[in-house]
Design goal:
2 copies of one chain form a homodimer. Chain A has 382 residues and is α/β, with parallel strands linked by helices. Chain A is 37% helix and 19% strand. The first copy, chain A, has a 7-stranded parallel beta sheet, with helices on both faces. The first copy, chain A, has a 3-stranded mixed beta sheet with strand order 9-11-13. A two-stranded antiparallel sheet of chain A has the order 6-7. In chain A, strand 6 and strand 7 form a beta hairpin. The first copy, chain A, is globular.
């Protein structure tokens, strides 16, 4: 299958591109490389030393004989996107190419506006591009479990059957996103749902949980293929950040009480979920929503797990409760459906101590690259 | 009370500004005058000959002694908006200043992107401006009943109590908007709800129905104060468009079967609803939603009503069913709550034959200004 991976230079996109290429698909990466510029803006870095995208795909071709074509440009530039679609005519368009950090979106007004315009207009352009150039192309869009917030009822996969005053309907699940970033994903979801209905576009929205991990089978084949690892308070997600803090002997910084519960998944499941979605496309006009995670943990659960693993390796790791920079419930009900991807064949990599230890050892290898001042939160929601 | 009316040069904003000024409030109009530029873009016009904003407020001051200060600029320019807030320090900010036409947003990709960026960024800027400059200011934001779409259950005012798998929560009412314009309002609603929760902003979202009518008490005091009347297929709303078609002897163009049912209100109720919201502000941190309409009609109901009124005036008016340019259900359940504004004192002007005849006569006065080719729909959703 011919598949575009937009955002294919990023943490999820790069291992997805390699995996799909290795599975025999014709992969095209579209990326503006902006994620690397945000590192410069924030004086931050990937804990792992990552090669340039050119070096990455060149090495991949040397090792495997498989070519990953790259187009460097921004989805916000419609003429560029349209030209890419005309030249490549993809059967699936995997859309990772958004600003994906909640704290980044909360830095100030400019970053909030940038995040929403970048994400919403990029996705509008993809929708128009598919409509105009490749109407059969299946859009596989990355959403987030954070779109749902933390309602006091079970979270379903995209839709909810509602009975009210004696009548019944199946309606889009109500959304309560908790940052301007999460809001941008909710805006995208509504826009895509409409485009499916109005134009017959086929789309799968993958409401992904928090991704942890680093390596996949393919990224381990050569140092030039290594995936990025974000540990900073802006782009680092909680479990990878805790593992990094433990590796450098810092306390694990839990925001508030740590009762915040979310869905999590290993990066090795992310890449497989994309493949499952691509191999089982949505129907024309269908806006399909899958909740893409494998297990639920609270932040404090994760801190304890990391503490245990680090302790077994001889590290004396403390847990520190910081004032929460976010506006969110620290104790709440959380139970979210996530059976649709499993039903289509996902076999989860669960979070065992062995898995944690593996990531921890990878982090240890590169711990000298950590920039200390980037770990603690500096961006407040208020 | 010191009140900003953003979009105060438009169809709803101008009579609102006059009414609030006449009620003794200190009114400040903020407007980019872009609505007049869209007339040029579309080779369209207001059926009524409207004066410039300068002429309007000058005449108002001559007649009443009341000054309406004007600031000409765009809410998308944050420095401008911030300066206005610093200079005026309003207690209420009435936000009409958005691109409000569904067909305009569906012209092409550029118009879809423009509509969403213009509306979403303008509102984000207002939220940041209130947060930074006037945190006590009450945001009164115009939403639309079209945010809800046409669910098969009763529509409530913003929120819905949901019982699911034995648990219960009150959640944002699920939204199913039917154009990129309507989507922009849904995006706004989610952004404002978040800002209320995160920053303690006080906001009222007025999900307004379709507005009909033309004159208010104040706009009748002088020809220079006359309100605009849109009859074209892009900015004209259904009832005013039917009245205009009848006045020039055209058939009334019903899209599809005409079973599309919506909430409607007279422009005289719009201005009173704004006053009610301003006089009864939301609490800090509260995101309050009122459904702002007074009666429900189907499109075909309205065509029949106009036919009857025109007939009584000696006009032989036909009803024509056109292929529907929109993607929408033409037969559906529709029942929407709208008691909150009534509970706060709204006394509706209902749609009687007398009211219809009054608008019809006003339209007749200016029928020679109608540009024929603007009446029929030229923009398709697909």
């Amino acid at each position: 299958m011919k598949i575009i991976v937009a955002g294919g230079d990023g943490f999820c996109g790069w291992p997805t591109a390699l995996y799909l290429s290795n599975q025999g698909h014709e992969v095209i990466i579209v990326d503006s490389l902006v994620r690397r510029r945000w590192d410069h803006e924030l004086h931050s870095n990937s804990l792992t030393p990552i090669a340039t995208l050119d070096e990455r795909v060149t090495r991949w071709q040397e090792l495997t004989g498989k070519k990953i074509k790259t187009y460097i440009g921004d989805l916000n530039h419609y003429d560029f996107l349209r030209e890419v679609l005309i030249q490549t005519r993809p059967e699936a368009f995997v859309h990772f190419a958004e600003q994906r950090s909640a704290p980044y979106s909360m830095i100030d007004r400019e970053h909030a506006v940038f995040t929403q315009v970048n994400n919403v207009v990029g996705t509008l352009n993809v929708l128009y591009g598919i409509k105009e150039v490749v109407p059969n192309c299946h859009l596989i869009k990355l959403g987030t479990m954070g779109e749902y917030g933390t309602p006091n009822i079970d979270i379903e996969e995209g839709y909810l059957k509602i009975t009210h005053n004696g009548r019944e309907d199946i309606l889009p699940y109500p959304k309560q996103p908790g940052s301007f970033y999460h809001l941008s994903k909710v805006h995208d979801s509504h826009n895509i749902m409409f485009a499916c209905k109005a134009w017959g576009i086929r789309a799968t929205d993958l409401n992904q949980g928090v991704v942890y991990g680093l390596h996949t089978e393919e990224t381990l084949w050569d140092p030039l293929l290594v995936n990025r690892l974000d540990y900073d308070a802006v782009f680092g997600t909680v479990l990878n950040r805790f593992l990094t803090q433990a590796a450098v002997g810092q306390g694990l910084t839990v925001y508030g009480k740590g009762g915040q519960t979310r869905g999590f998944l290993n990066i090795m499941d992310t890449i497989r979920c994309i493949e499952i979605a691509a191999e089982n496309p949505a129907e024309h006009g269908e806006f399909r929503v899958f909740n893409q995670f494998t297990e639920e943990f609270s932040v404090l659960d994760l801190a304890h797990k990391v503490q245990e693993v680090a302790c077994a390796k001889g590290f004396d790791t403390r847990i520190i409760h910081l004032e929460n920079p976010r506006i969110e419930k620290e104790e709440h009900y959380y139970h979210a459906a996530h059976s649709k991807l499993h039903d289509l064949g996902l076999e989860p990599h669960l979070l065992t101590n062995e898995v944690l230890t593996g990531i921890f050892c990878s982090v240890l290898e590169h711990k000298e690259r950590l920039i200390n001042e980037n770990v603690l939160p500096s961006i407040s929601w208020t």
